[in-house]
Amino acid sequence: MFELLGIAPQALFGQLLVGLINGAFYAMLSLGLAVIFGMLNVINFTHGAQYMLGAFAAWLMLTVLNIPFWIGLVLAPLVVGLFGVVLERLLLKRLYHLDHLYGFLMTFGLALVIEGVFQWKWGSSGQPYPNPIPGGTNLGFMFLPTYRAFVVVAALVICLATWFAIERTRLGGYLRAATENPTLVRAFGINVPRLITLTYGLGVGLAALAGVLAAPIYQVSPLMGQNLVLVVFAVVVIGGMGSILGSIVTGFGLGLIEGLTKVFYPQASSTVIFVIMAIVLLIKPAGLFGRTR
Amino acid sequence: MTNNHTLRNILLVAALAVALAAPWVAYPVFLMTALCFALFACAFNLLLGFAGLMSFGHAMFFGMAAYFFGHTVKEWGWRPEFGILASVLGAAALGAVTGALAIRRQGIYFAMITLAFSQMIYFFCVQAPFTHGEDGLQGIPRRAFLGGLIEVKDDRAMYYVVLAIVLFGFAAVYRIIHSPFGQVLKAIRENEQRAISLGYNANLYKLLAFILSAAIAGLAGSTKAMVLQFATLTDVTAAMSGEVVLMALVGGIGTLAGPVVGAFVIITMQNYLAAAGEWVLVIQGAIFVVIVLAFRKGIVGEIGDLVRRRPKPGPAGSSA
Lengths: 293, 320
Description:
heterodimer, A: mainly alpha, 72% helix, 2% strand, B: 71% helix
């Protein structure tokens, strides 16, 4: 069958794996965006920069402080998440009573500042991050590097854990209630502003975690999140921000479609997600999993 | 009201006098670039300030128009006026397609969709052969205007042609805003449901506004390509889309003169900070943050508040 299509199975499965990994990042990032938007009504344009910060934090921890990958995987998102909390307390909370547009513009400005500072310090070229789990398995039809397999599994676990935390725990219940009606939830004695801060910190931490996972695969560079966040916007438009599982499915699905496009029609691989976005807008404007408003 | 009109007319005449004398004082190429960006910012502001639609992908019209102009004039040997016409029509067509899709969602989604489409156009431009990829289209010839009638080899002569084009663009924006069409747009911005209930086809109005804005952004982009004689990928990046938002924001969204003031401020800043490299972006980002926090009305809007004569904003081109 593969011979019929004129494509070697190694190439096909290799690209599918790449697609799955990209999809893992789309899923994690769009999930964070959706969680933040649900609670803060802010589209977090800084998401790409925070993903980059996660990768950089882990890289700096490794090269400067000699902190190994596994500890960095926990520590870096905490540090960046804390930075997110500071941003929210200092800047974002002043915008909640305004149009969504202002949050979008401010986080865009913040992304420019963060990426600009890192570019000035480290230039545009990437810094290599050593692979923490070298080696791999030959599956017969393809070679599977262990770390990449780990990333796909880890991303799935992280996404499902986030889903569980929001849909099945008490704190998640407060969160969803506060998204629906903050005033009422406050009347019940729950500290909604703190909940909002926490949510932003969580969303930012999620982006940073994705960044740490990405560091050994892509290189660590100040602009690594810049284009990614734009693709993730398209992913969010396609999936709609209404459902968490929807974001996860859309993220992984689009990654796979992108991988397949790379095999069958490589010229379109960078634009295919945007084309899908156009089609979805035509057929179901609210997004695949979105609620019409 | 009459007071306001007198003030406005005085400002308008003064601005025109400054614009006519400017190339004898300042460097014409700088002025021309700033004028093109001023028109670009006006096109963006037409959409956000008067139709309430926030496009974060306007670079696609600006940049693609520059490519259209470069291709028709350099590769096909067209006369510049036809090159500009083709670019404007091309940008309008692109606006029709992307606008028809983008208006299917509202609010912040609209911004994300336009941003995504402009990123798609960017990726397309990276690959398409006619853009010459990273090199860009270079050495676009400066041909005489109107079949040899107006020679533009000299930068000052070119300046007056560009000024005429840009003033035509400003006039178009002014006409659109003050037409019945513009009033309906404002009504839709203020209360879309009500406008629909009054029998206006809101989506059609939004789409038309989007196409007009795209066409004027295209006019700005092609004129810039004519002035600088090149068209590159920089003009289609998301950063360029952000820059035009910044210009409108700095000057004052929803005011007529704001985008012009904003464009001149930002272009001047970039000119002075050209050597600072990455810091230009950092400063632009910081300006975004500060303006959103403290000066959401922009320079012209805040001054208008100070003078307390807000309802009739100053004329377009008051800073030029």
